[in-house]
Write a structure and sequence with these properties.
Helix 1 packs across helix 3. 39% of the residues lie in helices and 10% in strands. The chain is built from nine helices and seven strands.
Length: 252
Amino acid sequence: MTETATPSPSIDRPLPNGDSASPSLRSLCTSLHQEITAFLQEDLSTETTLQAVQEQTRKSLNIIQAALDRYPLRTLSLSYNGGKDCLVLLILYLSLLSTHPDLPDRLPAIYIPPSHPFASVTDFTLRSAARYHLNLDIYSEDSSSSSQPATTLSSITSKGQDAAAGAGAEGGGGGGKGKGKGGGGMKEAFTQYLSRNPSVDAIFVGTRRTDPHGGKLSPDGFDMTDGGWPRFMRVHPVIEWHYREIWAVRLP
């Protein structure tokens, strides 16, 4: 379903190129910051949906900034699955990093694909992760239950799409579904991810209020994981976004 209102040009942008001419992470963050700032300054009094997007954007930026104030950047990660919610979250996150003094070349992220992913979805997730400078760790069911390293974005792209299709696992990158009752597959994946990345204290997730278990999450955007799960702070900046608002932000 596509939003009928025409989105503002300031947020109607293509993914950056993934070749050698692609901008550095800081340049990308600076460009996004400028575009988001311009969008928030526009007079959209006649565009009800885009007005709502402006308001949701401000709320999300406040939650992301609160996370950046609370946690060093090296302790933050992103649960990414290439979905629209995650993309909106990622763009807003990047827009606040343009002047961060400790910005790395790539940002840490975890991807837990479904057990039988569509090739086109996997391809888009990997391409967008590369273009947005994510250091993407990909966890399959096998890698989450053994001592072997998780698949990384660099190894996926070097081995080709066949390897990407073989990296499937139960669960989704946004956090909420997993293998069997209680999300066992996802729980194990996060356990392994955190054991291999012990500096990570908080993970951004693209959960919205209408998602499974989203109704129980705090409106301030911060929730510690439940008992039995590996301990980390879930940060969900797009929690109050509605479907119509998410899709008003046009992305390829």
